[in-house]
């Protein structure tokens, strides 16, 4: 594609949609009243002798910004339900959805 369109047009085709998505995500967050929004659910672990894993999250909205607090979630599993933690002990797969929706 770069050979066909050139680097400038190709890179604009990557950057412009990301900026538009970022702006849309910011508008969504700004429309949510400041406060704490809690939810917890269980996911089935897919390993031998696995047990349901509790994923708890408090979405904290402050001035159009989001803080995701996973306090109360079960510790990291050995099965494929988790993603790399970056050194955090409670970093559940639900964060992937947040990244796909709100982070360009």
Beta-strand percent range: 15-25%
Total beta strands = 3
Largest sheet: 3 strands, antiparallel
Cα gyration radius (Å): 18 Å
Number of domains: 1
User: Into which percent range does the helicity of residues fall?
Assistant: 25-40%
What would the principal axes of the Cα set say about the shape?
Answer: flat
Q: Explain this structure to me?
A:
The protein is of the alpha+beta class and 104 residues long. It has one domain (2-102). The protein has three helices and three strands; from the N terminus they run H-H-E-E-E-H. It has helices at 2-5, 7-31, 94-102, and strands at residues 35-43, 53-62, 65-69. The protein has a three-stranded antiparallel beta sheet. The chain is flat, with a radius of gyration of 18 Å. The two termini are 22 Å apart.
Brief rundown of the structure:
This protein is of the alpha+beta class and 104 residues long. Helices cover 37% and strands 23% of the residues.
Keywords:
single chain; 104 residues; alpha+beta; 3-stranded antiparallel β-sheet; 3 helices
Write the layout of secondary structure elements.
Layout (H helix, E strand, L loop, with lengths): L1 H4 L1 H25 L3 E9 L9 E10 L2 E5 L24 H9 L2
Antiparallel strand pairs: 1-2, 2-3
């Amino acid at each position: 594609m770069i050979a066909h369109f050139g680097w400038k047009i190709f890179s604009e085709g990557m950057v412009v949609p990301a900026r538009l998505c970022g702006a849309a995500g910011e508008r969504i967050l700004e429309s949510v009243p400041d406060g704490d929004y809690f939810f917890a659910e269980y996911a089935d672990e897919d390993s031998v002798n696995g047990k349901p894993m509790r994923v708890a999250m408090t979405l904290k909205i402050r001035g159009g910004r989001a803080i995701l607090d996973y306090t109360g979630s079960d510790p990291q599993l050995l099965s494929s339900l988790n993603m790399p933690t970056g050194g955090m002990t409670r970093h559940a797969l639900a964060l992937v959805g947040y990244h796909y929706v709100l982070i360009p």
